[in-house]
Amino acid sequence: MTKLLEVSALTVGYGEAVALDAISFDVARGEFITFIGPNGAGKTTLLNSLMGVLRQKSGTVSFKGEDLGTLKPETRVARGIVIVPERRELFPQLSVEDHLRLGAFLRRREGRAILDAGLERIYALLPKLKERRRQLAGTLSGGEQQMVAVGRALMAEPQLLMLDEPSTGLAPRITEEIFEAIARLKADGMTAIIVEQNAHLAFSVADRGFVLEVGNVVASGAADELRQDPRVLAAYLGAGDRYRDA
Ligand code: ATP
């Protein structure tokens, strides 16, 4: 069976510096995978490269059997690849609902009724957004902003959802709420790549994981096995781990 996403020897750099060194992996439909690793490991670079924001130096990325080559980000969105950026990138003066409708921009010809049904699905998944639907994004808490970013991405009806450190800067309670919503998406059959510094959270929703360090995959496997790996335990899951968020 063709995988939804197949990445082969992907190498990405900034000038002469190599940020990702010949990374290979694949993602099946309905699978959640995670990349964990410290600051600067190359996690954001990976997602930006899959999104087409960064161009690869070498290697191939194919999605539904199609080589994405140099396709632009908006074309990749139309193909079904959507990112929730770490910095959320909201418009402070636009309301929650404006953001959600913007997320469906490429689906605008599908008609109001279909898009309204999509909105209701997002509100069912993230009820806080419904309460805040008229509120301006600039006045929302960090957790609410993250929910808007997730909701906006979902309005594009992604086939592959990419989440860049969804827990960054958020209090544990709100992070938990967001990961509960992510778990519900998984139960509904979504396919996702989640990049996280918080390995506990990442492994709570992922089927498989990859440990990225300075542009290389240094360990990988089923999430349940990886969380028992002594190196992963020592560096990412122990009480005194180096990288775990508060
Ligand atoms: P973080 O958790 O801090 O977001 P990360 O794992 O996402 O880390 P990247 O942001 O992908 O890591 O960075 C990988 C490497 O590429 C780092 O060495 C970083 O300094 C470098 N890098 C990232 N962006 C740029 C850029 N725009 N120009 C030059 N180097 C960059």
Describe the structure.
The protein has 246 residues and is of the alpha/beta class. The chain folds into two domains: 1-80 and 158-246, P-loop containing nucleotide triphosphate hydrolases (Rossmann fold, 3-Layer(aba) Sandwich), CATH 3.40.50; 91-157, no CATH class. It has helices at 43-51, 73-79, 96-103, 112-125, 127-131, 142-155, 172-187, 199-205, 223-226, 230-237, and strands at residues 5-14, 17-27, 32-36, 58-63, 66-67, 81-84, 160-164, 192-196, 208-213, 216-222. The chain has a six-stranded mixed beta sheet with strand order 6-7-8-3-9-10, with helices on both faces. A hairpin with a 2-residue loop joins strand 4 and strand 5. Residues 239-246 have low confidence and may be disordered. Bound molecules: adenosine-5'-triphosphate (ATP). Adenosine-5'-triphosphate (ATP) is lined by residues 14, 17, 19, 37, 39-45, 197.
Count of the separate structural domains: 2
Going by helix content, strand content and strand pairing, the class is alpha/beta
Strand neighbour order, sheet with most strands: 6-7-8-3-9-10
Any guess at the CATH architecture of the largest domain? 3-Layer(aba) Sandwich
Count of helical stretches: 10
- CATH topology value of the largest domain: Rossmann fold
Backbone shape:
globular
- Strand and helix order: EEEHEEHEHHHHEHEHEEHH
Enumerate the spans where pLDDT stays under 50 for 5 or more consecutive residues. 239-246
Unique ligands? adenosine-5'-triphosphate
Just give the CATH class of the largest domain: Alpha Beta
Strand content: 15-25%
**Separation of the first and last Cα atoms:** 41 Å
What is the gyration radius calculated from CA atoms?
A: 18 Å
Give a short account of the largest sheet. 6 strands, mixed
Tally the beta strands.
10
Q: What is the typical, i.e. mean, pLDDT?
A: 90
Bin the helical content.
25-40%
CATH homologous superfamily of the largest domain, by name?
P-loop containing nucleotide triphosphate hydrolases
The assembly state of the depicted protein chains is single chain
